[in-house]
Amino acid sequence: MDAIDEQIITELTRNARISHAELGQRVRLSRNAVRQRVERLERQGHIGGYTIVRPSHGPDHAVVAAHVLVYREDRMRGGDVLAALKRIPEVVSCDVLSGQFDLLVSVEAATLERVQGIWEQIAQMPGVRDTVTALALSRVVSRPRQP
Predict the structure, then answer these.
(1) Comparing C-alpha atoms, which of 38, 46, 49 is closest to residue 8?
(2) Is 68 exposed, middle or buried (CB count within 10 Å of its CB: 0-12, 13-18, 19+)?
(3) Most exposed residue of 6, 49, 116, 136, measured as fewest CB within 10 angstroms of its CB?
(4) DSSP secondary-structure letter at 89?
(5) How far apart are CA 134 and CA 121, in angstroms?
(6) What is the pLDDT of residues 13-52, one digit of tens each?
(7) Which contiguous run of DSSP H or E holds residue 24?
(8) CB neighbours of 15 closer than 8 A, spacing ≥ 6?
(9) Global pTM?
């Protein structure tokens, strides 16, 4: 990756819908050269996809967010728990933690009942020793990751 690739990624991070022609003007390349670079960056895994962001306000966009701290029976051999979490569509992130807690699982669902069902599903998984759950009351900061 060179400096122009970095500029392309920066511009796409700001606006993933920018046209190749506009992007080319910003990085001083032709539309075709930009297209080829973007395709190469996608193949190499530097661009992994484009994200849909839904507004979280208003009755049509309500979402219930929760964070579940998971204690596994065996941190080193708990891959089955991780695989099961990956199959739950409402799990939006799962981080392996150091310290007292083992996993931090973030869940976003349409209803409180669905969050409860997911919590019960996680708590009953073989290899899960215990859970602690917190509901998110409001989101103060929500921004795309910066390059």
Answers:
(1) 38
(2) buried
(3) 49
(4) T
(5) 16
(6) 888 888 999 999 999 999 999 999 999 988 888 887 666 5
(7) helix 20-27
(8) none
(9) 0.60
